[in-house]
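QUALITY CONTROL LOG
STEP: pairwise intake check
CHECKER ROLE: data steward
CRITERIA: each record must contain a sequence immediately followed by its structure tokens, with no blank fields

ENTRY 1 OF 2
RESULT FIELD BELOW
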Amino acid sequence: MKATKECFACVLAQAERNLAEWDKDDKLKFEIMRLASRSLEMAEYGMKPIELSKLTNDAVKINTGVEDLYKERKSILNQKAKEVLPEIKDYANYSENPLKTFAIAAILGNHLDFGVKDVEIDSEFVSLIKSKSLAIDDFDLFTEKLAKAKHLLYILDNTGEVVFDKAFIEEIKKRYALNVKVAVRSAPIINDVTRKEAIEVGFAPEEIIESGSEMAGMTLEVATKEFLNFWDNSDLIVAKGQGNFEGLDEIKDERLFFLLESKCPVISKILGVNLGDIVLKQA
């Protein structure tokens, strides 16, 4: 999808949230926000929103000299997600369709996104998982593909969320004999999952592949050879989160499924859903 005029305010707000994690005075933060704003002079019509956000995020990273401003927050978010996971598992296992419930939990984990807003994991979040239903529901098509699949490529998104992704993947592997690879960001950006956080929540090193993306989302243009090899040879591909949708939504491939919460009006309009709706959609 192409970035719109609304995306400028969003990526600048994202830069400001990055600086909230930086223990420096307001004068320095003001100067870096000025530089982040100036970085948007390089924006070109036709860029994807994740490409626009990389301009401001890189400006913050370069001018603070800090590679990962969310390092501590990411670990905390993963830990908090682990604390509520047993309750989610208990609910899912006794639900009418446990696999679908795990899918919904993984999608709603996308609610935990510092790139869009500040979030908390609490009883309200757990209640949301128990009450929310899919606004676009291609779950049956997804399970049809699962039944025939031998190789699944799962493109991860945010920390916190990744805890529920892992639970969903474990449930898939209980039911279907298939090989799963998870793709991570190749450099820290906001609270997205890198190899470090994927290992932290329990993925084995051999399960993880570098995507090549240093943006808050994935495009094939930046993909590593390893990623492209698994993309070409997978029977089923899951793209988690809004950023991965932004980067891959123009691809028409029946193997590809988007699992996300729609958190901005532009994406809601594209999908034909309401703000805050959750989606499991075949490309």
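ENTRY 2 OF 2
RESULT FIELD BELOW
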Amino acid sequence: MLDINYIRQNPDDVIAMLRARQLENEAPRVAELLELDRQRREIVQQADDMKALRNRVSREVAEMKKSGSEPAGELIGRMKAVADDIAACDAALKNLETASEDILLALPNRLHHSVPEGKSATGNIVCKDPVQFEYGLDFPLKNHLELGRALGILDFERGAKVGGAGFPVYTGKGARLERALINFMLDTHTGNHGYTEIFPPFLVNRESLRGTGQWPKFADQVYTIEEDGLYAIPTAEVPVTNLHRGEMLEASDLPVAYAAYSACFRREAGSYGKETRGFLRVHQFNKVEMVRFTRPEDSYEALETILGHAEAILLALRIPYRVLLLCSGDISANAAKCYDIEVWSPAEGKYLEASSCSNFEDYQARRMNIRYRPDSKSKPEFVHTLNGSGLATSRLMVSLLEHNQTPDGKVTVPEALRPYTGFEVIG
């Protein structure tokens, strides 16, 4: 959530940000918000004046009673009228604050100055040389679906029977390979990169979704359990970042770094066609998430750190990938800056997103009221929050299976995973 003081002082900058994000139709809401804010401040001043008057009259009545005289009926009536006016102001103030908050919650984050301008994903920039590995795939390739069926390790048909399209089933060595990936990534992040492991709830309340920015903007993408007021998490970012909602963190404890495995659930409304085949787009998938809380001055260095930690997984697995810096028209509403990591699928002949690493600055912390005190003499400040997929297994599994296939239809397990699988080949 943006700071209302920032919007008051920089309305043109906010409108320029909306235009850069291809949200020019939202620009009139800035003027609407500022008018609501003006009315709110005006009513606050009126209410404060009336409360001061009420206090003064109350003192007069108390003095009169103390001296033994009876307060005049006119004075009593005046107090009642003032009380009624204060109640009316409070009601109007509540309505204005609700309307203002609705707009504030819908406005996207500021963009970092390094974010390139662009209208869509075509404006994203490959910001590092793509990482390649030699695999010698000079034979007719099978895609991950064909490999999964032939080897009996993936069963999308029975998954669809049980849960519907987009709910995969891993079988036998496929299930063990998936578990190996998760454990390898958690062990790497906790053992090598300094993260504390968290195993979070997979269901959260609405306040948690609101805190990280998935509510109300992305409410249509979330699976809902209405009778309990609970929601299936779209990512472990939601429960993990909300662990410190409403808290004052110790400056000496920053940065705080968590790594968490979770299943992720996304409705992906409106996704149809070829892009939904197999793991290319699913409603349930597994992911290891990295979350960091930092001092504001350290957050962009932390973003590069998170990106490096995600890349370390791919380097260890020898998975070809590239890193994109997302442009203003493709970056998520919550992020100030974001990198995407895409892995190469030789059978599809294209890159597939496997990780996003984002700096939200104080956008989420302001929604969740997560602060720290820089020192004993300073006022509390909002922390900066960051997260990164480290990584999502679904698209990673596509690249892993396809790159490690052999001419006789088997799959060789990457060396880094063999201590976790207990086998070297799937065949």
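INTAKE CHECK: passed for both entries
DESCRIPTIVE NOTE, ENTRY 2: The domain at 121-426 is CATH 3.30.930.10 (BirA Bifunctional Protein; domain 2).
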